[in-house]
Every structure is written in structure tokens, then in C-alpha cells.
Specification:
The protein is of the alpha+beta class. It has one domain. It is about 40% helix and about 25% strand. A hairpin with a 5-residue loop joins strand 1 and strand 2.
Length: about 100
Amino acid sequence: MPEVNFRVRWPDASATVCYSPSSTIKDVFVLGKPYAVGEFVAISRNALENASDRVAKKYGYGCAHAQRQIEEIEIRAAEFTDDNAARVVVEAFED
């Protein structure tokens, strides 16, 4: 399973490099598309949980790094929950 990092631009213009244990993350995000913060969190959570499940099927255990990444995204996103206009953009995939 090829790991992929994806660079995220937050509503405050800061950037974070996030981790996925599977390249399937590329199937769920459109580069440059603005996502509402809640939508970004939900898509990320679903994609990373699915990627972790794929790891579990192959190796017998899930990906702890994917779970930590979900938690980090949720913590960061919480800073913007009061701003309905806030958008997150996935800027790049880095194999």
C-alpha cells in the first residue's frame, strides 16, 4: 500500500502536511477544491479509517498513524467551527 502525504491549506492560510497509509486518499479529494471544514473532516475521517481497514486486512492490524492523523485534523478543524464560511483546500499529494 503506497503511503501518501497530502498538503492542506487551512482557513487561516496555514498549511499542514497530513498522512494517509493508502493512495486511496487521492480518490476522495479534488486538488484545489475548497471544502467546508466539517465536510473536510468527515471525508478525511472516512478515507483514513478505510485506509486503516485496508492495512488491517493486509497485515492483521490497523494503522495507528492514520488514527493519530484523524485526531490531528479534528483538533485543527475545531479552531474554525464558528466560521461557516471557512474552507479547507487540499493543495497537493506527495507520494
